[in-house]
Amino acid sequence: MLRRAELALALLIGLAVAPAAAAHEALSLEDEFVKGVFSPNFVPPAAGSYELPAVKRVAGFVLKDSSGRAVNTGRVTAGKVAVVSFIYTSCPDRLGCPLASRALQDLQDRLKEEGLYRDVVLLSISFDPGRDTPTQLAKYARIYGADSELWRFMTAPSSHVLEEMLESYGQDHAAVYDQRGRFTGRYSHVLKVFLLDRDGYIRNIYSAGFLVPDLVINDIKTVMTGPARP
Asked: Against a cut of 0.90, is the pTM above it?
């Protein structure tokens, strides 16, 4: 597992093609999250032994996938449990987007092991549509070994659609500018990964400290087998 993570991180360093992104500090292969931040210091509760109340329902949006096709997120997630992450491919924050993508990479493997891959979809959505073109997202997906039938990468067709979508989910983000007012190529954002039920309701929101495949898998099972949303 460590070797795969090191390969992904090494390729990510070369993926940031924008001039501003090239100035970011390089990701260290010795960083803590590579060594095993995904090993929880607690035992997640058993699936079905707890409830995950609905937080809010999110709307569907027409985005572009990594092949350049227009896709409606509502149709992609319809009838499935969804795990949704907002990222940008040149993110240099070691405990930000790379952490989220690594978590979904591990989750993809676990879903296949658990036989849940037909009932779940993983979505990574960029909030940097100017640089994260479908071609760029396709490269990023290959780095993480994404199975296109299970894990989809998407970008917004416009800043207007992006802002509406982020507001629907409650995902913050802000472009970072230098003292001269120039865009640095970076975004300030809080890492959030969203668990959606089959009806499009948010049932859990994971931060860095709780983005653990064992916990997410149990939450998915809980949502799938628990009582219907009120």
From this structure: no
